[in-house]
Design a protein that fits this description.
Strand content: under 5%
Shape: globular
Number of helices: 15
Radius of gyration: 23 Å
CATH class of one domain: Mainly Alpha
Largest sheet: none
Helix content: over 70%
Number of strands: 0
Length: 287
């Protein structure tokens, strides 16, 4: 894959459309060589500089505040301490150790294993890691699990999700690119080990739809979506399955296969008769 684009597609997949747009402006070859400088790049650069200045000022103020303390504990200190006391919900997220503590997150990974890597447990874990800013510790804990069980596709998927979440809060383009590459690699490994694993194939397929047509990866997205349609076997047991048809139809349209898009949507509406989004999408295509 084109590594700078990986960041864009993952940002788009998980809600960072604005970041993706800015990053596309930085991709060599994404516009004609003779095009004039994009003013968005100057804006992004200026914002980065301003954020850096503000961050340094805040760090200096915080340092001065800490240095100015005389060690006394007064009402203000007590109030600050009370405001940092964990709420019941926070306590449930961190049973042992400090927020982001490696041993604590290792225990959380063990709990996911015990829960059979349910999607609910994975989502709860990702939310916890985000709340505690424990991405590095989380990745190490999952890697430790993979050292013991390298053929576990669900552990590879969990690591991919941890990388994506860290990517979304990263402020460094280099780190975002690195994490994006790692994430896509883990998706691929999970699917090599378990080809019918729905989540990594669905997420990878959607990410591929964010590439421009000239990159030539849309056929790969179509293959992933078509594989999912076959795998779902006309089942309506999971409402997420409807999204497979919706996305596949959109990619068909983008690649000039309107007849296939119509057939896909008609099939989808027959399987999900109460899905208003699918019915609207079909109606718009038939008009």
């Amino acid at each position: 894959m084109k590594s700078p684009l990986v960041v864009c597609v993952l940002c788009g997949l998980f809600g960072g459309a604005g970041i993706a747009a800015a990053l596309f402006a930085r991709i060599p070859g994404s516009r004609p060589a003779a095009a004039p400088p994009d003013p968005r790049l100057e804006t992004v650069s200026k914002l980065e500089e301003e954020v850096g200045v503000l961050r340094r000022r805040l760090e200096a103020l915080e340092s001065a505040r800490v240095d100015g303390k005389d060690g006394a504990s007064g009402p203000a200190d007590a109030a600050a301490s009370a405001s940092k006391s964990p709420k019941p919900a926070d306590a449930a997220l961190s049973k042992t150790g400090a927020p982001g503590d490696g041993s604590d997150l290792a225990a959380a990974v063990a709990e996911i294993v015990a829960a059979g890597f349910s999607q609910e447990a994975i989502e709860a874990f990702i939310q916890r890691v985000r709340k505690e800013k424990g991405h590095a510790a989380a990745a190490e804990a999952i890697k430790a699990l993979l050292e013991r069980d390298p053929q576990n596709p669900k552990a590879h998927y969990l690591l991919a999700r941890a990388y994506v979440d860290e990517l979304m809060i990263s402020k460094s383009y280099a780190d975002m690119n690195r994490l994006g590459e790692l994430c896509m690699a883990e998706y691929g490994t999970a699917l090599e080990l378990e080809p019918t694993y729905w989540e990594p194939r669905f997420e990878r397929a959607i990410s591929l739809t964010f590439y421009p047509e000239q990159m030539g990866v849309l056929p790969d997205a179509i293959r992933d979506f078509e594989t999912l349609v076959k795998q779902q076997n006309r089942s309506s047991s999971d409402p997420r399955f409807a999204e497979t048809y919706a996305h596949l139809a959109r990619v068909y349209v983008r690649t000039g296969k309107s007849d296939k898009a119509l057939a896909t949507l008609r099939d989808a509406v027959a399987i999900f008769p109460d899905n208003e989004a699918l019915k609207k999408q079909l109606q718009e295509m038939e008009e």
